[in-house]
Write a structure and sequence with these properties.
The structure is a homodimer of 114-residue chains. Chain A has five helices and three strands; from the N terminus they run ααβααββα. Chain A is an alpha+beta fold and 114 residues long. Chain A has one domain: Winged helix-like DNA-binding domain superfamily/Winged helix DNA-binding domain (Arc Repressor Mutant, subunit A, Orthogonal Bundle). In chain A, strands 1-3-2 form a three-stranded antiparallel sheet. In chain A, strand 2 and strand 3 form a beta hairpin. The relative contact order of chain A is 0.13. At the A-B interface, helix 1, helix 2 and helix 5 of A face helix 1, helix 2 and helix 5 of B. The structure holds a DNA duplex (30 and 30 nucleotides).
DNA sequence: TTGTTGGTTCGCCATATGGTGAACTATAGA
DNA sequence: TCTATAGTTCACCATATGGCGAACCAACAA
């Protein structure tokens, strides 16, 4: 699972940037070539390509070159991995607060609210 | 919402490190003082404190000092914010694939599978 | 009062990140 | 064939990150 941990590292790191989150959001509505993706942003292409490579290294997107255009598409499974970790954590926390609530109730039996 | 975007930046960045994720996980089972939290890790206290301050800056944890011990506790709402963004994205993607499936079906009417 | 313990601060270091501009390659189209 | 376009690579820069050791402060305990 050390591998998985590294995967979470790179996925969360990739998402920790508004440009990259915007790209992911955009790609979720459909694949797109690099230039089209880069248009909404102020930065130059080299900087934008770095963002793309961070995203690709994280597995959040895959790219494929055909002729002179490179098409990018998102890998929703990776997003799900991040969401999964968070859901796990929430489950732990909810379990704890549920037990806490039960404990408090056991100390202080709930009154019937009329 | 620019503020929220910044909040997502810091939350995802905070989660992009195994040490910090472990601390969050640990704190979800209950509050703890700094030293106890730091014990499982190899690094020195100064380095560990930096991780804590990253977590605190992101709002994922809050700390409070009483006497000479500083107690840390998690803020589950921030975790939920990150999970919320991911859930939103998944909804977009699912909406798209649902529409895609509908479109494909409209082209190629489904056969009744016996 | 004198240790010991929990935490903090400081200066330092190596590396990673996020951006730039300029030069370059390779394909598509006229 | 010529040219415009999509993308890539390179060298460079400023700042952020993640770690260290050493010195330091403050509070509890003996």
């Amino acid at each position: 699972m050390a591998n998985q941990q590294t995967a979470l590292d790179t996925v969360f790191h990739a998402l920790a940037d508004p440009t990259r989150r915007a790209v992911v959001s955009r790609l979720l509505t459909g694949a797109a070539p690099v230039k089209r993706l880069s248009e909404p942003f102020e930065m130059g292409l080299p900087a934008f390509l770095k963002h793309l490579s961070v995203l690709e290294a994280s597995g959040l997107i895959h790219t494929e070159k055909q002729g002179r255009v490179r098409t990018c598409r998102v890998d929703a499974a990776r997003l799900a991995a991040a969401e999964g970790w968070l859901a796990e954590q929430r489950a732990v926390w909810q379990g704890r607060t549920d037990r806490l609530a039960a404990f408090v109730e056991s100390l202080n039996p709930p009154e019937e609210k009329s």
